[in-house]
Amino acid sequence: MVHDGSDASNLLDLQRENIDDYRNLTAEQKTELINDLIEDRDSRSMGRRLSQRSRTQDINNVIEQLIDIILGAKARSGIDGFFCLFPNSVEFHMAPRWFFTLEQIETFLCHNVKGWDTNKIEFLRTSKAQADWLKAEIRRLINKMLVDITGNEKAVMNYVSYERDIVLLYGIELVGWTMDKWANPSDLSNSIPPLQKLYSALESGQCHFVRVGMTDLNERRKAYDAKVAAGLVPPRKTRKDAGTKRAPRVEVSKKRRAVEDEDGGGDISQASKHHRGGGSVTTPEVQEIPGQHGPPVELEVPQQFEQSFFDTNAAALRTIQLYMQQQINHSQLQVPPNP
Question: Which residue intervals make up region (Disordered) (predicted)?
């Protein structure tokens, strides 16, 4: 389009027309106008593009500039490389955009980096992937807030028994839930807008945990107990091993294991290792009584010291060693010396 300039004002004309208004401005007004101009310039380069079309066009322009810059640097300085651009928000749908200065670079990465495939390296390209990511982030944010307010690093959110295991246990409740129903995030619908709304509420702090007052907490506890008595609250699941006798847990510290090794526990450990390779569980067949010349005393390990003891830990092996020593001492008292 060509302008003849007949009705257009040039810069000098604008200056002459507005010079009086400019001189009448205060220092504060001039500063405000300058700041508005700077903000307008920044919005053109950093302002968020709202439509899918405007974002795609902006990305295409950026990629063209990046390619020109990289190829120029390659020609001037002798470099090669690649880049990848991908969306960081579920609001923008775009396949990853790759650029390699040499095709051999991609071939090298495919052969030398395990699992490298530019066709499979993607980020939230499908609605299902976006929904799964949002649900995972919702769970993570809620668990993080739960740990922060309780001060318990092992606290875990319970959605099924929320009233009992969260409200009544910690005296807190979650407010600002934006979904129509209360459920574990994994059980929510895969519709993106509701998930995005809940995620944004958690990110902004609109959805958060608050302390429950003592009066309200007592009322909720009474209401919960009444539901339990009426059979409206499902009971806890029964353990699979309920009713079966479980052996006590045996824990041995590193210091104790070191002492046992110094006291001779290592020999018993070697015996246990030998047993694991096969054979029956017995002590050495013959134990001679020190200082005596009578017949040897045969010792047998009682039934309680079966293979399970050998396969537990050094504490059990040490117990066997002490038992054997007691048997030897007892035998010394019962076996008379030879005349």
Answer: 235-294
